[in-house]
Design goal:
The chain has four helices and ten strands. It is of the alpha/beta class and 183 residues long. The protein folds into two domains: 79 residues, no CATH class; 101 residues, Rossmann fold (3-Layer(aba) Sandwich), CATH 3.40.50.300.
């Protein structure tokens, strides 16, 4: 996803004539402006289904979305599929390798910042995201650890989470952040 700033005063009008300073455009439908975040989300799902069908598959073809807003910095963000260990019924039996190859194409780029998303309630020594990041960034120079599920760690293991967030365990030069997702 490409995030770009708009020029001062640049706006888009919706079908009712209302002006908007922020909007999104997809590469596959460049002439259509999306001004509602829910519509952008629906279009991502629809384009994913068009590309991969209903077989729970993945595609190496990116969905290009450009966001125009005076409130964001120019940045390219690539949202990759999560690494998996098991094939679900109905999926291609080679899905594990396909996802690994897709992820490696992007995280191997030397200018990429890797967000290694890991669950706080699981053992980080077995975290697939950290393992993949360490293969291409062995010194942790361009990896940011993202710790999820910090709100549901087992009682008594809070100190382990604090040690990770303080970059004492599993040291990364860019450190760790914690996120709590909507439930």
């Amino acid at each position: 996803m490409q995030l770009n700033t708009t020029k001062p005063g640049q706006t888009v009008r919706d079908k009712d004539g209302n002006e908007h300073l922020e909007w999104g455009e997809f590469q596959h439908s460049a002439n259509k402006k999306f001004i509602n975040f829910e519509d952008i989300t629906k279009e991502i799902v629809a384009e994913t289904d068009r590309e991969t069908g209903s077989i729970k598959g993945v595609s190496t073809k990116p969905i290009g979305l450009r966001i125009y807003s005076p409130y964001v910095i120019p940045l390219t963000l690539v949202d990759l599929p999560g690494l998996v260990r098991n094939v679900v019924e109905g999926q291609d039996p080679h899905i594990i390798e396909q996802i690994e190859q897709c992820v490696n194409v992007y995280i191997s780029r030397p200018n990429a910042i890797i967000l290694a998303v890991c669950a706080a309630n699981a053992d980080l020594s077995t975290a697939d995201a950290l393992c993949a990041a360490q293969k291409v960034d062995p010194h942790g120079d361009r990896t940011v650890g993202v710790l999820t599920k910090v709100d549901i760690v087992d009682s008594g293991t809070e100190n382990n989470v604090l040690a990770i967030l303080n970059n004492e365990d599993y040291k990364l030069k860019l450190g760790w952040i914690a996120v709590q997702n909507r439930s």
